[in-house]
Amino acid sequence: MAVIQRIKKPTTRRGKKVLLSKEPKPIEGPKQCIFLQGRNPSERTRKLLKDIYDLKKPDAAFLSRKNDFVPFEDSSLIEKMCYKKEAALFGVGSHSKKRPHNIILGRTFNYGILDMIELGADKYKAMSEFHNMKVLAGLKPCLLFNGPAWDLNQDLKRLKSLFTDFFHREKVESIRLQGLEHALSFTATDDGCIYFRSYRILLKKSGQRTPRVELEEIGPSIDFKLRRSKLASDDLYKEACKIPKELKPITKKNISKDAFGTKLGRIHIGKQDINRLQTRKMKGLKKTPEEKKQILIKKKMARQAAKKTQAMAA
């Protein structure tokens, strides 16, 4: 059940500014995320959420208080917290005998649950167990999705979109080679296993203009197992992915480019009568008095012939 939104009218200048900031925007910044602890979280799930929170910082909030709820049965608490924190993404950790070391990742749309996917952390190696240099917080990572299963399975297809939402930061127009310092690798198999790895990109000398690229694992290292999923309907998902009119490119009609990049335009005009076409008035194109006399005689003869035909018909 979605959170009921009341129509609020601002009474102060500051209140108006707050309400305007909550309105939908054509170009949104990085999505905020909250991490919650569900029913009886284990030490592994707590550390795992903390590591994902470290990768997501500073666009995230980690709530250490335990909450006795099951998101797949009652998601009202998540919707309430996402509305309060202005967050579009959430992560919940829990633990039980039936579902050990359980992680639920999801997102909201219009303050209601859009997608929820449940993952089990079979193997986990924390970021603190890798004794090497880490990357700076807030760095935009390079996302790698390995394996054909990401495009064949519907749940994995939505999970790929969810991971992209989680680690997508500000939109960039150009990329500098030295700015690529962090890489996140997601490898999916046919049996529903997802291998999550984090690497630091090292650019070393190669004796050429292009540097030699090496990857150093910095953690966390997680082996996920796909469990349950609660996906949005096609209509709701299509509405959530709708592009605003302001961002749609304006197509220019009848303009094209050839193989050499030359811009070509096509002009459509109506049918023209060459006899009535207005040309430049010059002395050489004027009719002589004899030509004018012949034209008048032809018109007179045509009128006489028309009268004779009318009289014969009568």
Task: Explain what the structure shows.
This protein is an alpha+beta fold. Helix content is 27%, strand content 27%. Strands 1, 2, 3, 4, 5, 6, 7, 8, 9 and 10 form a 10-stranded mixed β-sheet that branches. It has a two-stranded antiparallel sheet with strand order 11-12. Strand 8 and strand 9 form a beta hairpin. The mean pLDDT is 87.
Query: Major sheet: size, sense and barrel closure?
Result: 10 strands, mixed
Strand content: 25-35%
Q: What is the chains' assembly state?
A: single chain
Q: Cα-atom Rg, whole angstroms?
A: 35 Å
Distance between the termini: 89 Å
**Helix count from the secondary structure assignment:** 7
Order of helices and strands: HEHEHEEEEHHEEEEHEEH
User: What class would the helix/strand composition place it in?
Assistant: alpha+beta
The shape, in one word, is elongated
Provide mean pLDDT, rounded.
87
Uncertain regions spanning at least 5 consecutive residues: none
Organism: Parnassius apollo
Subcellular location: Nucleus, Nucleolus
Domain Brix: 31-235
GO molecular function: rRNA binding
Features:
rRNA binding; 12 strands; elongated; Brix; alpha+beta; single chain; nucleus; ten-stranded mixed β-sheet; Rpf2; two-stranded antiparallel ribbon; Ribosome production factor 2 homolog; 314 residues
